[in-house]
Amino acid sequence: MTSSNHLSRRSFLSLLASAPLASALPHSLLAARHIPVGLELYSVRNALKQDLMGTVTSVAHLGYQCVEFYAPYYDWTPDYAAQVRTLLDSLRIRCYSTHNSLESFSPDGINKAIELNHALGTHYVVLASPGDNVKTLDGWKRIADTLNSANQSLASHGLHAGYHNHDLEWKSVDNQVPMELLSANTDKSIMLQLDVGTCVAAVADPVRWIESHPGRIRSMHCKDWSPEKGYRVLLGEGVAPWKKLFAAAESVGGLEYYLIEQEGSDYSELETAKRCLATFRSLHP
Known about the structure:
Elements: H1 9-18, H2 27-32, E1 37-40, H3 45-50, H4 52-62, E2 66-69, H5 78-91, E3 94-100, H6 110-120, E4 124-127, H7 137-155, E5 160-164, H8 178-184, E6 191-195, H9 196-201, H10 206-211, E7 219-222, H11 242-253, E8 257-260, H12 269-283
């Protein structure tokens, strides 16, 4: 991974275009295995603030099969989490994971995270960000230790920890890539949730990453990126090699569910979610 950070953007994009498929398995066989596709609800964050129950209902009616709540869910009461679960059940959609701050992984905060995630029926409590103060290898090692410690507590309650990357994790620190350090120093039961867009933006190779970490990429944020529009580009309109990513994730990565994420676009939040899901279905029939 270190060497990939020295590629020029032009060379890197050419490499993505010409790379072989991650697996010899026909894509038709991969598609035959049902893997749900959901929405990271940060994609509809403004609507969610106005009407959480109504927005989740609208997302389900678009055809999404699961959702991922992000950090503000941690402020809920257990009773409210139970109400949300009742809605999810009535809509026949699932919440397999939540995004969390470091508070959910702290000794004082983990019990609340466990209670809320049990109410929602999730499998993974995902650390969405390492915080603003991680700048050294020792800092990244402390994040790995935090994940391992929390994972032991979560596992005793039928849950597991996860880690969600941004672009920072692909930028070399003292000749070591933080994502490599995290993967090497965390228990293999900890999910490495791949955010494709930030990986590509950092000029790392997401297909190679999946292939070199079998069984750990159990969910993937399907977010695109382009040099011209950044993360505002719609799914399928950027440079990410989606079909190769799907093949690698399903044949090697251990993928359990997909999550579409969009940070913004030229359309409304729900229209964006609708368009991205239609594109996903065309790329992954």
